[in-house]
Amino acid sequence: MIETSWRRWLCLGSCAVLAAVSAAAQAPAEESGASAVSAAVTSQGLGRGAAPARQTIKPIKPGFYMVTDAGGNTSVRVTSDGLIIVDTKNAGEAFYTALLDQIRTVSNQVVKFVFVTHHHQDHSGNIGRFVEAGAQVIAHENLKANLATYAAAQGKPANPNVTYATEYVVKLGSSTAEAHYYGRGHTNGDTFVYFPDVKIAATGDMFVATTPTCDFPFGGSLVEWSRSLDSLLRLDFDVAIPGHGDDAMTRSDVQVFKQKIDTLIARGAELVRKGTPKDRLLSQIRTDDLGWNINAAPWTAPARLDALYEELSEVK
């Protein structure tokens, strides 16, 4: 429970929030294998022409909102001169239109800037539509490189029209948004977007309310993930927008998440040092106390398991 003063404002604004939707839409259809994406889409009934799951916009702080469902969470910063958003939902006109419909319930301003946290289509899916609408779509340079070989059942997302290497700052009205690249983690191109005036960090899938996944084929690293979170925690924020999850979370939640990553690394490395065979590693790493299940896809995919085992074998 977030217990700051803005939380009380959130409760007062709750009458404006739309009804919650099916939890199935929260499942991240993000992985590099097209089959994983296709299965997730079919499970939502989207592969047969059905309407996408209803999106829900929620007030977080004055002038700041998050839109849940139908892909990764989208952040919306309302300013006097236009909108800044983070992440673009699952690919497709219906998802894009539904997202704009939600945004228009809180502001009729034009979307000026879009940050995309990583290349998976549930976050990057509508880059092209925002570019065509005149927005500057900003992402790390590795995201653009990853899109060159990325396969998704819904089609390849378009390239961003602005890329950066380490950090990128935009100012709109009296608000500022900072893009930070702190290294590898969920992929090798993850962006944290920090809004210093409201002390909010949008994290993409570098922080989630569900079991995390590490996309090793696209440069992800479990070990370096922890270091990236260390850098994030040096920023002055009290609210974090997770890549997946129904609600905004706190700085303390990010700290706990990092501790879980560290625990997972330590336990896995110890098992590797003891000679645990690769095909038994995931089943023997204890995670019940973490609330995570890594003994399942996509962790078990050979391209991921091989890389994880090799990485853990180098931990001292």
Q: What count of structural domains?
A: 1
Per DSSP, what share of the residues sits in E-state strands of 2 or more residues? 15-25%
Q: Taking strands numbered 1, 2, ... along the chain, how are they ordered across the largest sheet?
A: 1-2-3-4-5-6-7
Mean pLDDT: 87
Oligomer: single chain
The CATH architecture assignment turns out to be 4-Layer Sandwich
Enter the CATH topology name.
Answer: Metallo-beta-lactamase, Chain A
**Low-confidence runs of at least 5 consecutive residues:** 1-51
Based on CA atoms alone, the radius of gyration comes out at 19 Å
By DSSP (H or I, 4+ residues per run), the number of helices equals 10
What structural category do the secondary elements indicate?
alpha/beta
State the order of secondary-structure elements, H for helix, E for strand.
HHEEEEHEHHEHEEEEEHEEHHH
Can you tell me the CATH superfamily?
A: Ribonuclease Z/Hydroxyacylglutathione hydrolase-like
Sheet of most strands: 7 strands, mixed
Overall helicity: 25-40%
Q: Please state the overall shape, judged from the principal axes of the Cα atoms.
A: globular
Beginning-to-end CA distance, first to last residue: 37 Å
- Tell me how many strands there are: 13
Query: At the first level of CATH, what is the class?
Result: Alpha Beta
